[in-house]
Design goal:
Radius of gyration: 22 Å
Number of helices: 18
Order of helices and strands: HHHHHHHHHHHHHHHHHH
């Protein structure tokens, strides 16, 4: 009995540690994931916990198998090391399956995970604001080439980190304060003020746009948030306007973003060859990805193949190479071809349809409805096709994405059937 309790304790706390590991670096993340997968598998087997081998999980498994197959076919291009890495991608499948199973059987408490996310987001937000205004963060790290990195040092991913866990943290604020029946929730206002302001001054502009877009969706979707969000807009809009007009770094950063968006649209729809294309223009990378994709439309080019195939493309002024396509959808198309893209799409749509049916057929209480809606919104924003992203197959980004998807196991048919039967 003691061994079972200790094993359950270890599995739970390894899961709660994952957000912290994302701050500590790739090595810690990989060690945490490997131990979590290993102990979760043992725990599930020892306790005879049933894993749902449903059709959408089969689609996901087939997708990862196909990435391995495509990488094997293209091993001369991507190399033996990347072929091995394609096999190791199965860790994401196991993370999804084990987390979904543990959530369905209520072996993990999302509340604790959300509290850790909220604590980290508040710290990183305040630290980023401090670094932007004083030149150093709480640990004494200076700005790196004028960029806000917070505790991530030279990696300017503070804004991305805030954005990735923003909605989980907002769900936590709701969970902690929903019983107080506050007309004006000062906790929510404080949280939203510092996260929105931190992403505004951080170096990743797309993170700010995503957080702002998320807040707009929440404003129009949930009546309970409207008063608080209206107060936030009244406070921050004049501040943003003032900083845009008075701070050269902010002005240059967001004017450059406007130019890049305009350039990307022109590349795809106007074919304008006279424009000034900046060296980090995502539109050019997307164009290059589609050109490279044409070589292996059905089976793809294998894992991490973009960095190897791009230099071999016939050059024109639109071609721009990078380590990856900077868009989940284009990356799956390029590396896994149409077959891999269809398999992953079938998985995603089947999950979404299943969850929507549960919502329509079962009467969810307000608490479950709001928490699940926020989890669903987080996933939909994460996979929104018209935004730049990290690599789907990287440790940092992949871990966050597959955890986000497995969170939708929070709402499942078995739990609501049980409630109704009772």
């Amino acid at each position: 009995m003691l061994q079972k309790i200790n094993l359950a304790f270890l599995v739970q706390n390894l899961f709660y540690f994952i957000p912290i590991s994302l701050v500590l670096g790739s090595l810690i993340i990989n060690i945490t994931l490997v131990i979590f997968i290993f102990l979760s598998g043992i725990y599930i087997v020892k306790n005879n916990i049933k894993i749902n081998y449903n059709f959408h999980n089969i689609f996901l498994f087939l997708f990862f198998l196909f990435i391995i197959f495509s990488s094997l076919i293209n091993i001369k291009v991507i190399g033996y090391e990347n072929f091995i890495k394609s096999i190791l991608l199965l860790k994401f499948f196991l993370i999804y399956i084990f987390l979904e199973t543990l959530l369905i059987h209520k072996k993990i408490q999302l509340k604790i995970f959300f509290i850790i996310c909220l604590s980290l987001i508040i710290f990183v937000s305040l630290d980023s604001i401090l670094q932007f205004h004083t030149g150093k963060n709480i640990l004494g790290f200076p700005l790196h080439d004028g960029r806000v990195g917070s505790i991530f040092g030279s990696e300017a991913i503070a804004g991305a980190f805030i954005q990735k866990f923003f909605i989980f943290s907002l769900a936590c604020v709701y969970i902690l304060t929903n019983k107080e029946n506050l007309k004006i929730n000062y906790y929510e206002i404080f949280f939203l003020l510092i996260t929105l302001y931190a992403t505004f001054v951080a170096s990743n502009r797309m993170s700010f746009l995503i957080v702002a877009f998320s807040i707009l969706i929440i404003f129009f979707s949930f009546n309970r948030y409207k008063k608080n969000l209206f107060i936030i807009f009244l406070i921050l809009l004049p501040i943003f306007f003032y900083m845009f007009n008075s701070n050269n770094i902010i002005n240059s950063k967001y004017n450059d973003l406007k130019h890049k968006i305009s350039s990307a649209v022109n590349i795809f729809y106007q074919g304008n060859k006279e424009m000034n294309l900046s060296p980090d223009n995502y539109g050019r990378i997307y164009y290059t990805t589609l050109k490279s994709f044409e070589d292996n439309i059905f089976i793809g080019n294998g894992l991490k193949s973009f960095r190897y195939k791009c230099p071999k493309l016939s050059k024109d002024e639109k071609i721009l190479c990078s380590t990856h396509p900077h868009n989940y959808h284009l990356e799956v198309l390029h590396d896994g071809g149409l077959i891999g893209f269809i398999l992953l799409s079938l998985f995603v749509f089947s999950v979404l349809i299943t969850k929507i049916k549960i919502i329509l057929k079962h009467s969810l209480n307000q608490y479950d409805k709001i928490v699940f809606s926020l989890i669903l919104l987080n996933f939909l924003i994460e996979v929104f096709p018209l935004k730049s992203t990290g690599s789907l197959f990287s440790t940092w980004t992949g871990t966050i994405l597959w955890i986000s998807l497995s969170m939708m196991g929070f709402i499942n048919k078995n739990n609501y059937d049980t409630k109704n039967n009772n």
